[in-house]
Specification:
The complex is a heterodimer.
Chain A lengths: L2 E5 L2 E3 L5 E8 L8 E6 L5 E7 L7 E2 L7 E6 L4 E6 L8 E8 L5 E4 L3 E5 L2
Chain B lengths: L8 E4 L5 E6 L11 E6 L6 E4 L13 E6 L2 E6 L8 E8 L5 E3 L3 E5 L1
Parallel strand pairs in B: 1-9
Antiparallel strand pairs in B: 2-6, 3-4, 3-7, 5-6, 7-8, 7-9
The chains are: A mainly beta, B mainly beta.
Chain lengths: 118, 110
């Protein structure tokens, strides 16, 4: 059974930093890309970042480029999202998702809430 | 990276069919067969319902179907059931390893 478990969310002041983690199990982790997708309170889904199974590249939404860094440790079956220079508008539930065919995401974690507020 | 356009709401009675549209451009929806649809119930994580425009993941009933014409993709839910009431989001590959989502459609079963 595929499981994705996010952690690391919480309350942070504007300009601060936070590191999210997503521990995966139930599949051959290094064979699959992973993504972060966020959802602001009462709003829709927004793609944040993607990293392939090899970790050879990363891609980011314009809204987080230069501030967020996605990485993975295939020995620990874990992906990370380092978030710096956080803004109030980064407040959201952050979901970790497993990539699948045609740029779909076939499994999602339950999400971790990040609140940026003074 | 502009969001895809979805109607904010849609509705239908039990047993009826409803179609939700997702409009993009030739740089995303129209340029790739990489449209997906997700269902999200309140307080829950999204669930993949359709991928690659019209394919079903395992376990998704064939009451849900997808299609695409030009820059617009569509999700049709046939034989509406009460449990289909949820938010639905489309997404599309947008080139250069980027993904874009639609703004979401709230489906109400009357």
């Amino acid at each position: 059974e595929v499981q994705l478990l996010e952690s690391g969310g919480g309350l942070v002041q504007p300009g601060g930093s936070l590191r999210l983690s997503c521990a995966a199990s139930g599949f051959i982790f290094s064979n699959y890309g992973m993504s972060w997708v966020r959802q602001a309170p009462g709003k829709g889904l927004e793609w944040v970042s993607t990293i392939p199974g090899s970790g050879g590249w990363t891609s980011y939404a314009d809204s987080v480029k230069g501030r967020f860094t996605m990485s993975r440790d295939n020995s620990k079956n874990t992906v990370y999202l380092q978030m710096n220079s956080l803004r109030v508008e980064d407040t959201a539930v952050y979901y970790c998702a497993k990539d699948s065919s045609g740029w779909s995401r076939d499994y999602w974690g339950q999400g971790t809430l990040v609140t940026v507020s003074s | 990276q502009s969001a895809l356009t979805q109607p904010p709401s849609a509705s239908g009675s039990p047993g009826q069919s409803v179609t939700i549209s997702c409009t993009g451009t030739s740089s995303d929806v129209g340029g790739y067969n990489s449209v997906s649809w997700y269902q999200q119930h309140p307080g829950k994580a999204p669930k993949l319902m359709i991928y690659e425009v019209s394919k079903w993941p395992s376990g998704v009933p064939d009451r849900f179907s997808g299609s695409k014409s030009g820059n617009t993709a569509s999700l049709t839910v046939s034989g509406l059931q009460a449990e289909d009431e949820a938010d639905y989001y489309c997404s599309s590959y947008a080139g250069s390893n980027n993904l874009v989502f639609g703004g979401g459609t709230k489906l109400t079963v009357l």
